[in-house]
Amino acid sequence: MREVLDELLQWWRAGETVGLGTVVATFQSAPRPPGASMIVGPGGEAVGSVSGGCVEGAVYELGQEVVGSGTPVLQRYGVSDDDAFAVGLTCGGILDVYVEKVSPETFPELGEVAADLEASRPVAVATVVDHPDPSRIGRRTILRPDQPPTDSLGSDRIDDAVRDDALGLLAAGRSEVLSYGPDGERRGEGMRVFVWAFAPKPRMLVFGAIDFAAAVARVGGFLGYHVTVCDARPVFATKTRFPDADEVVVEWPHRYLTGEIEAGRIDQRTAICVLTHDPKFDVPLLAVALRHPDVAYVGAMGSRRTHDDRLKRLQEEGLTDAELARLSSPIGLDLGARTPEETAVSIAAEIIAHQWGGSGQRLVGTEGRIHHAAARTDAVTTTPTPG
Length: 387
Fold this sequence. Notes:
Elements: H1 5-13, E1 18-27, E2 37-40, E3 46-48, H2 56-69, E4 73-78, E5 94-102, H3 110-118, E6 123-130, E7 140-143, H4 156-172, E8 176-180, E9 191-198, E10 203-207, H5 211-222, E11 226-231, E12 247-250, H6 253-262, E13 271-274, H7 279-291, E14 297-300, H8 304-316, H9 321-324, E15 327-328, H10 340-356
Parallel strand pairs: 10-11, 10-13, 11-12, 13-14, 14-15
Antiparallel strand pairs: 1-2, 1-5, 2-3, 4-5, 6-7, 6-9, 8-9
């Protein structure tokens, strides 16, 4: 919903009614993740995408029907065995799309949810998308950390189960459909609840105010990270030199990272890129980063000679083999990159591959699925790869 929120809010505030289709589950090589949305506007407009083009027409028509009937629909779309060009995903994937009618009457909390997103406050929207009792379908509750749910999904048992699971998804920044028994039984079937998890942007911390850092900050912002550039040298760490960074901090890197960890602002989605390749900055910083378990990615720039020297210094600092194995150094994938921009793409490619469990190989030389499931949030160990 995030990518269509501006248009959705505009119509919602005007009192208009729209159809909203949302991907709630994917199977095989589906091109769009859970949470991807498409709006059918009051004037017949189509905004957003649920499949990259494969089933947009079918979802558009269903959205118009749902607006007219007011009855939400959970529809599965997949490739047709008889006709690959029939309505379906010719790439071979399968999508479950939930289509609902949205207006100020059906979704009165939308304005408050949008305010949370604007303020980078975590919020989750849980909606019953499938249930043996049709009257339960479409029930919705808004969940925020340290606050009670806004509405009941049907019983205390359901509410307790969904709240626990939804807050876990929110902490991981992951949207997902959850399955329960009709009354929230953990091992039952029949009820499916889609949780839209709107966590603040994941963070990318770029240490070292050099030209490569400017390119990494630009690519990091493009990928949806909140990017911070940090360097102890005020003459280099300026907003003018890093216009694409969300913030530029003048501080010793290890002190800054320690403060962010203590403040609870580093989580399992955080990517740390150390570009200084200067031992007096790198070693104390990496010692802090590699000892903290809740970091998704830690990479450091430098030649292989620099890498060997860095490992020796970190070992002298008492880091274990398991902690050192988390370090991606030299940073990035082997793309033959030379310029700052090419190097930034190399680094971004490694972060993406690490996040989704990709191999980094050319797809033409691989077999099997193209789209990977998300890697486990506790699986943060990487193998050093060439830069």
